[in-house]
């Protein structure tokens, strides 16, 4: 079979690789039917995640069909159509028992496309399959479901819930890529008074308006701080969500937040950012970080089935498996291609 193989910083190849095999009784093998490329994959290719070894198959967001299960898998059978979560969970360690699956001590957490081969391939091994997959109802399409593998639960848990978005809040979101747009979509569930989105790309700001932002700010030509202060009587935002992962955007977030407010960092950072405690120490600001746990995935899936959540417009480009390398090119050059989320499917 073929998979997208990481060859070290800047190097990737759609190459022939061995078929996956059951390595643990709790494993399942899926035929990958639809898969996406994540901004984190670009961070890996940029050398920002040095734990990823050359030769690793990338990818952690997929929908597939079960073709084989290990003897310890109880809830899945051949032919089941499943969402493969970006987080694997052993289910028995201290963190898993608390629902903090991203911090799993039993060999789980974020491992797909990171510490073990991922899902950007024709077939994939899913560790801890009972707890790391979700059966999909017939009415949910592959494209709709695959967005629940990572970006929607990540934005919801690490951005909206960590940021404690409440009715009437002013929420500023820095970055209008897929994670930022998913933060707009899920923040709306809590009826904030204002959602302000800041980005450099006009196409992404237009997408933010489509998903529910009422104010957009073009970074570099408009002043984000002035825009937020104008909406809040000079106070600043109640919640600021960082959805890029570079030092400048994190530092911008800490200037936009009001005294007593909350900064929720989602972005994957590969370089140090300055924490200006000389300004923040007196302002009662809470800063949170986090890796998604995916405890919210069942609830988000229920909302998807009920028609309360629609991230479908986020998918801008579609490719077949034979075009995987081109899919990466398009996704990585979003400033020119207008790509938000790309889906690669059979």
List the helices and strands and how they pair.
Layout (H helix, E strand, L loop, with lengths): L1 E5 L5 E5 L11 E9 L2 H7 L16 E8 L11 E4 L9 H4 L25 E4 L2 H4 E3 L6 H5 L4 H11 L8 E5 L3 H10 L6 E6 L2 H10 L3 E4 L5 H9 L4 E6 L4 H10 E9 L11 H4 L5 E3 L8 H9 L9 E6 L3 H9 L1 H4 L3 E5 L1
Parallel strand pairs: 8-9, 8-11, 9-10, 11-12, 12-13, 14-15
Antiparallel strand pairs: 1-2, 3-4, 3-6, 3-15, 4-5, 5-7
Helix pairs in contact: 5-6
Short synopsis of the structure:
Keywords: Metal-binding, Oxidoreductase, Zinc. With 346 residues, the chain is α/β, with parallel strands linked by helices.
From the alpha carbons, calculate the radius of gyration and give it in angstroms: 20 Å
Beta strands, count: 15
Q: Tell me the name of the CATH homologous superfamily of the largest domain.
A: Medium-chain alcohol dehydrogenases, catalytic domain
- Percent helix among the residues? 25-40%
């Amino acid at each position: 079979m073929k998979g997208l193989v990481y060859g070290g910083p800047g190097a990737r190849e759609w190459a022939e690789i061995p078929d996956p095999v059951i390595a643990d009784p709790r494993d399942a093998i899926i035929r990958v039917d639809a898969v996406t490329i994540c901004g984190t994959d670009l961070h890996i290719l940029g050398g920002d995640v040095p734990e990823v070894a050359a030769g690793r198959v990338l990818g952690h967001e997929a929908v597939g069909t079960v073709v084989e299960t290990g003897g310890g898998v109880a809830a899945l059978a051949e032919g089941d159509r499943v969402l493969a979560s970006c987080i694997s969970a052993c289910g028995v360690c201290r963190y898993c028992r608390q629902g903090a699956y991203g911090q799993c001590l039993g060999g789980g957490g974020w491992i797909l496309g990171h510490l073990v081969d991922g899902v950007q391939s024709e077939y994939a091994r899913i560790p801890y399959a009972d707890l790391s997959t979700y059966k999909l109802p017939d009415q949910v399409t592959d494209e709709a479901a695959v967005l629940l593998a990572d970006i929607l639960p990540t934005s919801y848990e690490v951005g909206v819930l960590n940021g404690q978005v409440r009715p009437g809040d002013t929420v500023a979101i820095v970055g209008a890529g897929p994670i930022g747009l998913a933060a707009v979509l899920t923040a709306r569930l809590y009826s904030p008074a204002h959602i302000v989105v800041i980005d450099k790309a006009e196409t992404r700001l237009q997408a933010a308006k489509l998903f529910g932002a009422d104010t957009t700010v073009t970074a570099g030509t408009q002043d984000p701080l002035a825009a937020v202060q104008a909406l809040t009587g000079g106070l600043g935002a109640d919640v600021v969500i960082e959805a890029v992962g570079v030092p400048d955007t994190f530092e911008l977030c800490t200037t936009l937040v009001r005294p007593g407010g909350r900064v929720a960092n989602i972005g994957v950072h590969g370089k140090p950012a300055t924490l200006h405690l000389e300004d923040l120490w007196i302002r009662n600001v809470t800063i949170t970080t986090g890796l998604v746990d995916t405890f919210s995935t069942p609830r988000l899936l229920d909302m998807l089935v009920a028609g309360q959540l629609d991230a479908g417009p986020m998918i801008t480009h579609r490719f077949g498996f034979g075009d995987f390398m081109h899919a990466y090119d398009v996704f990585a050059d979003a400033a020119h291609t207008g790509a938000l989320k790309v889906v690669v499917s059979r």
